[in-house]
Write a structure and sequence with these properties.
One of its GO terms (cellular component) is membrane. The protein is an alpha/beta fold and 345 residues long. The chain contains 17 helices and five strands.
């Protein structure tokens, strides 16, 4: 029943980006062994805004890892450096709050199986083809990618609303991979053109609360602004459903522009906006983000569509020992080994 530990390939990454993904306009997935990719400017920004000290970064990751192993021994989660850094950065290197966020992240995956079961891009291709969401190819001057939502394109008779949530979650998972995003955060642009009573009455308060809980309490991403444009009169009713679940800080980041593009441009410059929003960038290509996600199908299968990665696997007894006990290997080399093992945890 038990497998030999040699079956774990420690010399190769858990996933390999497809050739098409490697040539995408969006950054490729990070390697399994953490290497900082932040520019000196972003290192300084992370230090100032997130209390991230480069010289203590991996020490802080190890401290969070130790907390998880000690306080949550039954939690099945990745423990590699790059993954845990997302949660530390999202909570400004507060260990307790980072652990709470991680627990919420994992609890959400278990509590909402209709969202997370068999979660991969091909299962939401109809959402992507419809244009319900996309990501603009150029970040804003603050380095933040812009997630563009067009809820008016969805009709309740097309497919269940939960499919939109699935596509949104996959998008967030992809957006949070680059370290730039972990430091800079993202901006949401929601165009409510075409939204009527049928969309407003669906999903309802219960589903709305679950979506909001993912965005502000259950996912390691910093949402810096939510720009609403072309909102109909009925949007007041929609926002009345959402607002009770928003924290004050998040509610203050909602900006309603109506049809005033000049107001929008004060928040998102025309240089990165497509033509339909008064910008000078190319017309919004709804298929571009779809290609990014679909090119990463195998990556998401590994992340969301596999059984427990350690089921039946016996790891070597010394796999998680300190570098001094690792048969003479130097600390950096052993950290690389542990990072790959923790990825499989």
């Amino acid at each position: 029943m038990a497998l030999q530990h040699e079956s774990i390939d420690l010399g190769s990454p858990p996933t390999e980006p497809s050739p098409s993904a490697a040539h995408s306009w969006f950054p490729a997935p990070p390697p399994p062994i953490y290497t900082c990719t932040l520019t000196p400017e972003l290192v300084a920004k992370a230090r100032e805004e997130l209390q991230e000290k480069p010289e203590w970064r991996l020490r802080d990751v190890q401290a969070l890892r130790d907390m998880i192993i000690k306080e949550q021994p039954n939690l099945r989660t990745r423990l590699d450096d790059a993954f845990l850094l997302r949660f530390l950065r999202a909570r400004k290197f507060d260990y307790d709050r980072a652990l709470e966020l991680l627990l919420n992240y994992q609890a959400g995956r278990k509590a909402w199986p209709e969202v997370f079961h068999d979660l991969k891009p091909s299962t939401v291709k109809h959402v992507l083809d419809l244009g319900f969401l996309s990501v603009l190819p150029n970040p804003d001057p603050n380095g933040r990618y812009i997630l563009c939502l067009q809820p008016g394109k969805w009709k309740p008779n097309d497919y269940p609303f939960v499919d939109n949530v699935r596509a949104l979650y996959l998008t967030l998972e992809k957006l949070i991979q680059p370290e730039d995003t972990q430091v800079n955060g993202i901006v949401i642009l929601a165009d409510y053109t075409g939204v009527g009573m049928s969309q407003a009455s669906n999903p309802g308060p219960f589903l709305a609360k679950k979506v909001v809980s993912i965005l502000q309490d259950g996912f390691p991403i910093r949402i810096k602004a939510v720009n609403i444009i072309n909102e109909p009169m009925i949007f007041k009713g929609i926002f009345a459903i959402i607002k009770p679940f928003l924290k004050e800080k998040m509610a203050e980041r909602y900006v309603l522009h109506g049809s005033d593009l000049r107001s929008l441009h004060r928040n998102i410059p025309p240089s990165v906006l497509p033509q339909q929003y008064g910008g000078i960038a190319a017309h919004l290509d709804m298929a571009a983000w779809s290609r990014v996600l679909l090119d990463c199908e195998e990556e998401f299968i590994v992340e969301f569509c596999q059984p427990d990665p350690l089921e039946g696997v016996v790891l070597p007894d010394d796999a998680f020992l300190d570098g001094d006990s690792a048969g003479g290997q130097d600390e950096d080399t052993f950290r690389a080994l542990r990072s790959q093992l923790y990825y499989c945890y």
